[in-house]
Every structure is written in C-alpha cells, then in structure tokens.
Amino acid sequence: MNTAELDAKIAILRDNKDSWARLPIARKIEMAKKLIETNIAIGERQVAAAIAAKKIPADSPLVGEEWLGGPVITVRNLRLLVDSLEDVAAFGTPKLKPNAARTRPDGQVVVDVFPMSAWDKLMYQGFTAEVWMEPGVNANKLADTMAVFYKEDEPSGKVALVLGAGNVASIGPLDVVYKLFAEGQVCMLKMNPVNEYLGPFIEESFAEFIEAGYLQMAYGGADVGAYLCQHELIDEIHITGSDKTHDAIVYGVGEAGQKRKAADERLVDKRITSELGNVSPIIVVPGPWSESDLRFQAANISTQLANNGGFNCNAARVIINHDNWNQRDALLDAVRATLRSIPSRVAYYPGAEERYEAFVGANETAERLGRQGAGVLPWTLIPDVKCDDTDNICFTTESFCGVVAETALPGEDALDFLRRAVNFCNDHVWGTLSASIIIHPETQRELGSALESAIAELRYGSIVVNHWPALSYGLGVTTWGAHPGHTFDDIQSGIGVVHNTFLFDKPQKSVIYGPFRVAPTPAWFITNKNTHRIASRLLHFEGSPGVFKLVNILSHAIRG
Description:
about 550 residues, alpha/beta, Aldehyde Dehydrogenase, Chain A, domain 1, Aldehyde Dehydrogenase, Chain A, domain 2, eleven-stranded mixed β-sheet, 20 strands
C-alpha cells in the first residue's frame, strides 16, 4: 500500500474517533451483536483458507485447531463482551457473581470469574478461573476499576494501530475488539504478511465498522508497519509479535538501535501495549502418578507443543522436573511416544528452520521424534538441559517451532521442589506471559495453601494448573498478557492485556484450575480424533448456547 492510501485511511479514522468514543453504549452493543453474526457467517470459509495456507488436510482432526483458534474463540469473546456491555448499560459496571471477590492474607484481591453460567459448568466440568488484581485494589471498590472508559462523561477518541500476528486467526480481530470496546479507540489493523489471506474475512465481518470509519485495514511488509508506527496521527500502538519487533519499532535496528535502547532513546514515544511471547514453562510437581496419569499428561504436554505446528506464543518450551522423581523418565518416555505418534507439520512460519537448527545445534541431547524434510520439521525433545546452564538458548529464547526442552531441579520434597521451580522460572526463564503447573490431586492436598503461595510468587500473566495456558487466552473472562512491570527497554512479554471481557482495569494475572485428568479427551488435545467435528459445532453454540447444540457437541466429544 502506498503512503497516500495509508494517509487517507488514517484521516478517516481521525474524523470518526470521537464519534466512536461517544457513541451510545446501546449502539455499541448492537454492533457487537452483529459482529457475532458476521463472524459465524465467515467461519467455514475462513477455516478453509487457513488450512490451505498451512497445508492441513481437509479431513484431518487438525482442522479443529483452526476452528478453535479462529472463529470459535472470537465469537465466544464477543458474546461475553456483549454480556458485560449490557451490564454496564444497566448497572454501570459488569456484573460479577455474588461474593466473587476475596482478599488474600497479603491484601491482594482475587476475583472468581469462571464458570459464570450453567453452560460453562457443563462444558468445562471441574474448571475454575480467577483474575488476581494488582496490589492496592480494594475489594469494596473493585467496581471503580472496571469498565473505566464507560465512566468518562465526554471521552475523547484516539487512533490505535494494531499490528496483527501471523500465527493465530483470532489474535488480530480480538485485539481490535479490545481497543474498540474496552478502550474506546478506532483502529488501523495492519495484517501480518504471513496470514494476510485472512484480511478479506476480517473486512467482511467488520464491514459495518469499516463503513462507519471506525476500522481501516492495511497490508504490506515492514515498510508499511514502520510508516504507520511513526505516523504523527497514530496515537497508540498494539503489537502481538516478538520482543525483537517491539525493539525495532521503539529503538530501530542494528548497532544504532542497540545504542538507543541502552540509553532508552526512543524513535517512537507513544503508548504501546504488546503481547510478545514467552519461553513457557511447565512445572511438573512430583507425585504418585499412575500409568494412565502419565499417558494423559504426556498428551497434555505434547498438545502444548504441537498445536499449530509449535507456532504459538504459549507453546510448551521447558518441562521442569524434580531430579529425584522416580517417574521422571517414565513421563519423558510417554511424551516421546506421543510426539512420535503425531505427524510432522509443515513449518509455515518464516524462520522456523533457522531457529530449529539454532536450538538443536546448541544442545547435543536433542532428540528428533518425527520426519524431517523440505519445509517439514520434526517434533524435538531436548532432555536433561542442566539447570545451572542458565544461558542455554532453551531458557533465554523462544524457539517458536516444535522444540521443547526438559530440565530437572533438586528438592528435598515436593514443596521444596515447587519453591525452587518458582524461583527458577522467575529468575532464569525468559518472559512472563504464561506458565503451567501440573500436580496430582493427592500432592495438591498435601501441599495445601503452598500451591496458592507458589502461584502468588510466579511472575506470569496467566498460570494454569494441570492444563495448557491457552485456556486463559480462550475463556474470554480471563485476561491475556504479560505480568505487569515491564518497561520499553526490558519489554520481555509485553505491557497490558486483551480479552478481559469483565473489563478489569488493574489485573495482575489470571489463574485457572483444572482437573488432573479429564474425560472424555478435551477437544483441544492433539490426540483427539474428533476435534474438527466438535470445534465446528462449537462455533454456533458459542454464538447462542442451547440444549440441542450442546447435546450435538457432546455426542461427538465422547468419541474423541
């Protein structure tokens, strides 16, 4: 796109930014409801385009990944957002459960946000979720920190640039939705060249917003992104990508960029929110696991690596075991067996082969667990990375491909190990986006409140017990973003949150608790043979839940 065309689009947004900010909430609700309908309408065609681009066979269960990571999550988020906006219109703030907020002994406020409905209780049996607030938030004044944009009398609009991610279909649209509805900003969505094939579907589903001048679309490479980032009429920027992309925008590239970063001399000095990835750890607390426990959790860990070919910011990157756990080898063997049973995937994301070779070349213990060929990378386990080798690439760099490392820490018992693992993650594992803790229920009972204490100490934006942190991305009621506290010159996993349909203004982290084992096999598991059938039906259920839709889903789920 040429600069004149980009300037014209920005001018449209500038002309309409205040009208969107001050648009009556009833009208915003109408437009959000319409978005649900239009995203359902494009769902099948969007998924078809995605599997063609990623070279996924049309009859493969892997097609379900594109349903779940695309229209299903988008529609669920929109439905829950509409619920919150209707509460704001009626009561001034999103409505929580009675007695949802509690205060920990240290004064931190924790809010129960899931399940909120009978539908979620049925669909996610045994799962609960909380949003923990930043220190200083008072439970009695929690409502004052929710939907704060809607508490302004005459809000002024802003123009936000959203730099879309290239890996997951729902990221760009939902980042736009958050800027529009949570922060009251009109948006320029710049598509990533990797998945710009999604652009026409976004334009179709957001047609009402584009026609009204509340959203514009941009296409092209880094030159287009750089022009938009530095444009004087762009007020704010939201990035989903890598920390390197963030630094290039803020400080520039090469030696000159490094010098500017060291001095914190910014080329772009606007408010920038971001979600920039993670070396996602899985803390495996030792316990009395059965053979079936090992198989289930091996499938769980393998799913966290293999979903979307390993091209997820929340993919499993480091398994942290207890060095004296008598089932450590058995778990790793079960992970090996599971990964060998999963077909190798096309490495569609640019730079994957180079990143893969960097990890394998730096670690002689790397085990290739699948086929490697032209454009195809094998799942790879790098076991026994020494925990004192803290400069190892496995701890310092996100591989963004199908590589997972394993390390082991000492500990006198499960509690001592857990404390050491928390410190190891906080001090030596790069990023603060998401982490997982896997713990047997018997061990959890023995540890008592120590598990919550460990969660409190972990500096991650999302922590999920027994399952993949992608749940925090997908539930909608939880927040998605880094742990607070990063600065531009030490950005790590980013600044700010998205999703967050309760519109909390001061969240610190989201915490999800799930059962140690789930039956039938969860729809998101890489080992589920029916994911594509389940996920396609979930789209219509999330748009408008109903008994017959639920029965239809469950009839396929039990065969997964």
